[in-house]
Amino acid sequence: MAKDWTKVTVTVKNEDTDRAAAVISMLDNGLMIEDYSDFSLNGMYGELVDDSILSADKSISKISIFVPKEKDLLGYIEFIKTHLPMEKIDFTLDVEGLDEEDWAEGWKKYFKPIPLGRVTIVPAWEDYASTEGEVIIKIDPGMAFGTGTHETTRLVMKIMQDEIFGGESVLDVGCGSGILSICAAKLGASLCRAYDIDPVAVKVARENVERDGLSDKIEVGVSDLLSGVCRKSGGYTVCVANIVADIILRMLPDIGSYLAPGAPIILSGIVMDRAEEIECAAKALGYSVVRRECENDWVALMIKR
C-alpha cells in the first residue's frame, strides 16, 4: 500500500455487516467488504481459489476504508469507536496491522492541542501554557470517542460557548470521553450528568473528569440512551447529544420530559443528508430549529420548544 494511505479495517459478525457498513459509509463511500459466507467451490474456477479464502472464517466480515494522509485519521477512528457501539454492534478494529492496544498508544502522535474559540483541548500528557481567559480541557480519550478533532464534537462546542454562561444543569447523552460535559463545566455549568452505553467510555470519562478536577460538578454513568438517566427536579436546562441520526430520532419523543421548559437541545453526529429528516422530526414534536451549524459533511442543530 502507498505510504500516503492508512487502511482501517473493522471486523463484525456477518449479520451485522449491512448495519456496520452503513455507519462506516458515513465516513467514506469507498468501502472494501470481505464476506465469504456465501462462497461456494461449485463452478469452473473452483480449483483456482486461494487457500486464504478457503480457510477464511465464514461467520465474520471485514469492512475496510483507506484514509489519505490529508484526512483526519484520529477522527475516523473515534467515529467508528463511538457509533458502532451505539448500534450495538460488536467489532474489532485494525489499523495498518496494529492491534487495538498498540493503536491506543500509537495514535497519540496525531493528537495535538486544538483551539476551539476560547476553549483549547489539550492532550493530558502534554505541557501547555494557557493565555488569560483561555479555557483549557485536558483529555486522554483512551479507547473512547472525544478528543475534539472530529467535526461533530467541534460543532457542539462552538454552540455551547454561546449558550452556557454559568449555573446551568447539563444532560450529556452519549458522552464518550466526557469532553462535552467537561467543556460545559469549564464554561460555568454547575451540574453535568453524562451517560454512555459503553462501560469503557464511562470509565475513561470518569478518569478525565477527575483529571480536570471536576468530580464535584460532573456525574458519569452507564445508560442505554435515556433508560438509565437520573431525572432532575425542574429538568435539565441544557442537553447535548453527539450521537447518530437514527439514535437521535429514537430519543427525540422522550427527551423533553427530562428538560426544563425552553431548554436548548444541541444535536450533533448528523451527516448532511440526514439533517432535514432530523429537522422535520423535531418540528413534528413541537420543537423549533433555532440554530444550524455545518462543517464539511456534518451538521449540528440546536432545537427548543
Structure description:
The structure is a single chain. With 305 residues, this protein is α/β, with parallel strands linked by helices. Helix content is 29%, strand content 27%. The chain has helices at residues 17-24, 51-54, 73-86, 100-106, 151-163, 179-187, 199-211, 245-255, 275-284; strands spanning 5-13, 32-35, 60-68, 92-95, 114-116, 119-123, 135-139, 169-173, 191-196, 218-222, 238-242, 265-271, 288-295, 298-304. The protein has a seven-stranded mixed sheet with strand order 10-9-8-11-12-14-13, sandwiched between helices. A four-stranded antiparallel sheet has the order 2-3-1-4. Strands 5-6-7 form a three-stranded mixed sheet. A hairpin with a 2-residue loop joins strand 5 (114-116) and strand 6. Helix 5 runs parallel beside helix 6 (179-187). The termini are far apart. Mean pLDDT is 84; it is low at 39-54.
Residue share in β-strands: 25-35%
**Count of the domains:** 2
What separation lies between the terminal Cα atoms?
A: 52 Å
- State the order of secondary-structure elements, H for helix, E for strand: EHEHEHEHEEEHEHEHEEHEHEE
| Low-pLDDT segments, ≥5 res | 39-54
The main sheet comes to: 7 strands, mixed
Cα Rg: 21 Å
Tally of strands: 14
Placed side by side, the strands forming the largest sheet appear as 10-9-8-11-12-14-13
CATH architecture annotation of the largest domain: 3-Layer(aba) Sandwich
What's the helix count?
A: 9
Question: What oligomeric arrangement do these chains adopt?
Answer: single chain
| Percent of residues in helices | 25-40%
Named CATH topology of the largest domain = Rossmann fold
Average pLDDT, rounded to a whole number, is: 84
